[in-house]
Amino acid sequence: xxxxxxxxxxxxxxxxxxxxxxxxxxxxxxxxxxxxxxxxxxxxxxxxxxxxxxxxxxxxxxxxxxxxxxxxxxxxxxxxxxxxxxxxxxxxxxxxxxxxxxxxxxxxxxxxxxxxxxxxxxxxxxxxxxxxxxxxxxxxxxxxxxxxxxxxxxxxxxxxxxxxxxxxxxxxxxxxxxxxxxxxxxxxxxxxxxxxxxxxxxxxxxxxxxxxxxxxxxxxxxxxxxxxxxxxxxxxxxxxxxxxxxxxxxxxxxxxxxxxxxxxxxxxxxxxxxxxxxxxxxxxxxxxxxxxxxxxxxxxxxxxxxxxxxxxxxxxxxxxxxxxxxxxxxxxxxxxxxxxxxxxxxxxxxxxxxxxxxxxxxxxxxxxxxxxxxxxxxxxxxxxxxxxxxxxxxxxxxxxxxxxxxxxxxxxxxxxxxxxxxxxxxxxxxxxxxxxxxxxxxxxxxxxxxxxxxxxxxxxxxxxxxxxxxxxxxxxxxxxxxxxxxxxxxxxxxxxxxxxxxxxxxxxxxxxxxxxxxxxxxxxxxxxxxxxxxxxxxxxxxxxxxxxxxxxxxxxxxxxxxxxxxxxxxxxxxxxxxxxxxxxxxxxxxxxxxxxxxxxxxxxxxxxxxxxxxxxxxxxxxxxxxxxxxxxxxxxxxxxxxxxxxxxxxxxxxxxxxxxxxxxxxxxxxxxxxxxxxxxxxxxxxxxxxxxxxxxxxxxxxxxxxxxxxxxxxxxxxxxxxxxxxxxxxxxxxxxxxxxxxxxxxxxxxxxxxxxxxxxxxxxxxxxxxxxxxxxxxxxxxxxxxxxxxxxxxxxxxxxxxxxxxxxxxxxxxxxxxxxxxxxxxxxxxxxxxxxxxxxxxxxxxxxxxxxxxxxxxxxxxxxxxxxxxxxxxxxx
Length: 877
Hints:
The protein has 27 helices and 31 strands. It is α+β, with helices and mostly antiparallel strands. The strands form nine sheets. A seven-stranded mixed sheet has the order 22-21-20-19-23-26-27, with helices on both faces. Strands 10-16-15-12-13 form a five-stranded mixed sheet, with no helix packed on it. Strands 1, 3, 4 and 6 form a four-stranded antiparallel sheet that branches.
């Protein structure tokens, strides 16, 4: 394992790496080599050797994973779950429905195309007739025999028409003439022998070259050797006869054969004989009258038949058109002469497959429709429960406390000067007690020819520090900076005892002395410590006399080594620092140069240093803050313009990274040290400037006036939010969400102000991200509902955020985006417009599923209809 460079990284970041620790690390690796599965587990084994606190554990893990390139398990900005297909469908629902409708339309078109021949031509209205081409007067009924002589050409005419539309149809015909000849498609035939023959005609009805119907017709053909003929002489108005009118008919016979009998039959009954017939009717009827000319017998092929249609009307109905008789031949299922069975089987399989497929698809979309309705109902129910719980905390009477964010002191990178400073601070210092230095006394006596002169020197002792931190304003972020400085010193084995004071340093407190202890008693307990006051020290000045307070002077003089570490920049020092404090107690700025001076000064005699002159040598590293109006955004941006902090964004525009960091602090309504570090870390990582997160740059931020007050005005927050780039706003909101979600649930009581702060801020940030990209941040959908209710009920107390998000006239850019489905573009919008549109889109997904289900049902019904047509074709026709 290449641990040498890793140990060097640990030392660079403030870890104590001794020879014994290195030996123990190698022993652990050898001992657990068979147990450790990966680098993450190895990190867990090694961490206790080097890390002595939670912060150090986090930093150790971060350095280990960076060095060995393991899977990142350290804190990163929040990422929403993978976007579900439903959200993408919701965004592009028009395209999806159009595509699906097009596919369904194509499928239905294919179905319709394949059975259109039977859909538009009902077999009941298809009429097929066969006539003797030489005698068009013959009725084409099936029971009317065809008459011809031997060796005479019998030529037939087969007609097919669609009665309903009077449309002619095409036919394919095959004739079986009944005389043992081969069936053929020729419409004519010559019989050589007299007799009665059964003619079978196979007809395949076509429409646009596609078969739509098959039928088989049977006719009787009478072949006689002589050329007899029979005609009926009758009035021309047989179809317009009235009731009671006499009808006179006469049979005219021509031919060589001897006639046996002329018979007239009506509906199968003989009503007369002879050539002439006279009859009348008392009521309106329709009859078919047959005249038989019998030469041999009724069954002789030479027997002639002639049909007469009689239509008797009432006189009042004579103006009406006559009723036509339906002489359509009896249909029977055709044999396999014209066979398209394979095609029908293929179509049947196709329709069944499509029907089954779209049955499943339609059921699936209907299921999704019901599921979406239930899902929306469940979400709204959960939101309502959460909303009631949240609003209950708004009336809480509990005293507000601080949200317990997880410590982030492991994030800043240690500067190289810290090693030198802490090394000097750990040096032993001279005590007030002296002792006889024997060796030097002997040497002195030898030098003076035996004259005894004792040599005394001050004893030295381990350096221990008593730090008093000015916490007059508990929200002052400089307090957190001083605490971080103390943590850094402790990491480098500097012995530090920490106390706080408010307003006056006469009474100090810490976790062990929560009720406070006087400065006098502190001296009794820590008289051999080096006293360091972290603050501007103005409490030590008598305001009335404008001089160092005598009481504090008397107490502080008890300590041999003491100093004030002030956050005031050296170039901002006024009379208070130079003329009042400095003559009585050493004072140095908290800048890295000031800390170096402090460390050097404590190892020597304080009075040997001219602090002012020493600081002036490095005057170029100090900067002015006193004359800057930090509530002016332009002045603040100028203050943040530091060399090396300008980077280019993706579009090539310059970005003031430090200002982006400071502006991002406006997202949260309170100034918190943990948020400052976390946001700074994520933004700096984005620009590849992680190592710039150090004490020096944090001090620059903490010197901003409103950071010292611990409060940012609503107007300033509003202006900073408008200036913050959207990409960094998104990163900052993700970071804040991570911090909020890290807080253990058991540490926050419901119906408390802390619960309100955490929940409201989580809702605001999740809504902002969801409104920016509802697909990627789909997991924040419930927060969007919660935000909508809070917004409409005017329960958002964060004035700066509400004004920023309103953005009625779109004067600035926010994360609130609206998707225009007509142009497929995204544009910035106000919260009110977004929420109004969102209400309309609540049921978009369920409507999409319903429409898709209905389209599927239409295709299903089309497939079933086609199957029904095939069934009729195969089983009825």
